[in-house]
Specification:
Blueprint lengths: L3 E6 L2 E7 L1 E3 L5 E4 L3 E4 L4 E7 L5 H11 L3 H22 L11 E9 L4 E8 L14 E3 L1 E2 L17 H13 L7 E2 L4 E8 L2 E9 L8 E2 L3
Antiparallel strand pairs: 1-2, 1-10, 2-12, 3-4, 5-6, 6-7, 7-8, 8-9, 11-14, 12-13
Length: about 220
């Protein structure tokens, strides 16, 4: 499972994501940013799951077509349906037997409440975490992949500004169950707040296309 973390805080909303794409066996297929930002809407959308190629361009164009944030949320479930259909039409088996489904992880600035907000919307129950599919579920703290071992940041104590690098290093070491990791390429921190959208690189790893990422012990 790729890295796609989300944190809603009073000062802003954050996504922390890697850039590697994977075959079901863990082999790296390529590198690309998985988060699309739109400063006009004060919104970011992260993508994970079995999506079509160049889905980020598709999301960018869709965001550009939305007149405002409220309308974007109203149209989001229909858009996710389109992404699922496009993925099924394009599926060529290149990614192996990855399970079907797409999850959108959102972060946005709520100008009325003056705080950051996050949520997820998924096309399958597994990706939705058991919640209703094609419905936006608010989240405050979301670690994906889940933290291994003892809880490093109990409750909602994770500070995206101070703890992001430690999270990147921790998730890089997470074993997917086959001795291989699913966190690679770069780890990037994205923030949306009242003053706009920013991003910065946390880590960069020397991963290679066509090779798996072995868990370091």
């Amino acid at each position: 499972m790729t890295a796609m973390n989300a944190f809603a805080r009073e000062g802003g909303a954050y996504l922390i994501a890697d850039t590697a794409g994977y075959h079901s066996d863990g082999t790296v297929l390529g590198f690309a940013e998985k988060v699309v930002t739109d400063a006009r809407l004060a919104m970011m959308i992260g993508i994970c799951g079995r999506a079509a190629r160049e889905v980020e361009d598709r999301i960018e164009a869709w965001l550009a077509d939305q007149p405002d944030q409220t309308t974007a949320f109203a149209r989001l479930s229909a858009f996710l349906c389109q992404l699922v259909d496009e993925a099924e039409e394009e599926d060529d088996g290149e990614a192996g037997d990855l399970p079907d489904g797409i999850r959108l992880t959102l972060a946005w600035w709520d100008a009325d409440a003056q705080e950051g907000r996050c949520g997820i919307m998924a096309s399958t129950p597994d990706l939705a975490g058991g919640a209703e599919t094609f419905a936006l579920r608010p989240v405050r703290t979301l670690f994906m992949p889940a933290l291994e071992g003892s809880d490093l940041w109990p409750g909602h104590s994770f500070d995206p500004e101070a703890d992001a690098l430690a999270l990147a290093e921790h998730q890089r070491r997470c074993d997917h169950g086959d001795g291989r990791a699913r966190v690679g390429g770069q780890m990037i921190l994205y923030r949306v707040a009242a003053d706009g959208i920013t991003s910065r690189e946390l880590s960069r790893w020397a991963d290679l296309i066509g090779r798996p990422i072995m868990v370091m012990t």
